[in-house]
Amino acid sequence: MFNLLIKFRFHIMWTYIAIVIILLTAPLPFEEGYGTEKTASVSHFLMFFLLGTIVEFAHLFLFDKVRLVRLLIFSIIMETIQLALPYRVFDIIDVGMNVIGVVVSYLVIVATHSLRHKPIRGQ
């Protein structure tokens, strides 16, 4: 049963990675106008925040800074791939939002883990 749970979490993680790849390389129907850059930046942050959270959660709170570095590299590579896509606009802010999303998700998981395993005073 435990092995099925671990496999299920890995399937969720890889499904989410595939969704991120598809969304980042697909043409988006943003109209020119007010707020589109902000909306796109927030969506980049949210996608990579969720990606980082799922990757860390899938490893059952076993922290590994190598995974963090791999996710950071993945987020930069995904934005760099957009340079080859004529219908996508490369923006350095998107790279920053990807990296911030990954780092914040890592910090949230670390904080959650440390709060969960913090000894109670007096024991």
Description:
The protein has 123 residues and is mainly α. It has one domain. The chain has helices at 2-25, 36-58, 65-81, 92-116. α2 packs antiparallel against α3 (65-81). The model is unreliable at 119-123 (pLDDT under 50).
Output mean pLDDT: 66
The chain-level structural class is mainly alpha
Gross geometry: globular
Strand tally: 0
Any low-confidence stretches, pLDDT <50, length ≥5? 119-123
The topology string of helices and strands comes to HHHH
Number of domains: 1
In whole angstroms, the N-to-C terminal distance is 34 Å
Q: With helices defined by DSSP (H or I, 4 residues minimum), what is the helix count?
A: 4
Binned strand content: under 5%
Whole-angstrom Rg: 17 Å
DSSP helix fraction: over 70%
Biggest sheet descriptor: none
In short:
The chain is mainly α. The chain has helices spanning 2-25, 36-58, 65-81, 92-116. It is 72% helix and 0% strand.
Question: How is the secondary structure organized here?
Answer:
Layout: H1 2-25, H2 36-58, H3 65-81, H4 92-116
Helix pairs in contact: 1-2, 2-3, 2-4, 3-4
Give the key terms.
123 residues, mainly alpha, 4 helices, 72% helix, 0% strand, globular, disordered C terminus
